[in-house]
Structure formats: C-alpha cells, structure tokens
Amino acid sequence: QVQLVESGGGLVQVGGSLRLSCAASGRTFTANTMGWFRQTPGKEREFVAGSNWSGAITRYADSVKGRFTISRDNAKNTVYLQMNSLKPEDTAVYYCAATNSYRDTVVTDTPARYAYWGQGTQVTVSS
C-alpha cells in the first residue's frame, strides 16, 4: 500500500518557521515529481512548491517564493518544505503529493497530474 505521510505542521506566530516532512512508503518516488499543495475551507487546492525527481528543477507559487524551500532526500524517500517568514495567509492544510510520470523535466502545478496524496497536516499562523 502506497502512503505519503506528512508531519511537522502546527501553530506558529507570524514571522516564524516550520519544516514539513513527507515520508513515502510502499514504493519509491525517486524518479517522480513531488510537490506540496495547500487548501483552506471553501477554496480549491493550491500549488505551493514542487521538485522534479532529482531536485535540480523546482517550482514555487509566487506567494511563497523567497520564503519556502522544497528539498528531497531520495535515499529516505522523503520530501521537505522549509517555510520561513510565515504569514497568516499561509494558514492551511498542507498536502504532499507525487506524480506517476517518470523523470519529468518540468514541475507541474496541476493537482490532477499528481497520482498520490498524503492526508494533510495543518499549519496555523497566528498574528
């Protein structure tokens, strides 16, 4: 059974930092794009950041550029999201996702292109 399990969410004050982790099990994703999305009630799931299979190509939503960093450790089958300078508008449930496509040279921001999803972890930024 393939699972993506997020961890690291929580409550943080404005300007603070959090590091999310997503550990995969059941198969390896070393050849696949992995990404982070977020969602708030009543809104569609929003792309946050993504990394191609090697980590050499990354992509970020404009709203998080310069503040968030995605990285991956393929030896651990894990992807991370370092979030700095957090703002109240970053409050959301954050989801990890992985594609089925092989060695992408671009990072897609389309949720439908991601075949596997975690259960989500809540991030709350308080002012």
- What pattern of helices and strands is seen along the backbone? EEEEEEEEEEE
DSSP E strands, number: 11
What average pLDDT do the residues reach?
Answer: 97
β-strand amount: over 45%
Instruction: Tell me the span between the first and last alpha carbons.
Output: 40 Å
SS content category: mainly beta
The portion of residues assigned to helices is under 10%
Question: How many helical elements?
Answer: 0
Which blocks of ≥5 consecutive residues have pLDDT under 50? none
- Give the biggest beta sheet: 7 strands, mixed
Task: Please state the overall shape, judged from the principal axes of the Cα atoms.
Answer: globular
Rg of Cα set: 13 Å
Walk me through this protein's architecture.
By secondary structure, the chain is an all-beta fold. It is 0% helix and 49% strand. It has no helices and eleven strands. Strands 2, 4, 5, 6, 9, 10 and 11 form a seven-stranded mixed sheet that branches. The protein has a four-stranded antiparallel sheet with strand order 1-3-8-7, with no helix packed on it. The termini are far apart. The model has no long low-confidence stretch (mean pLDDT 97).
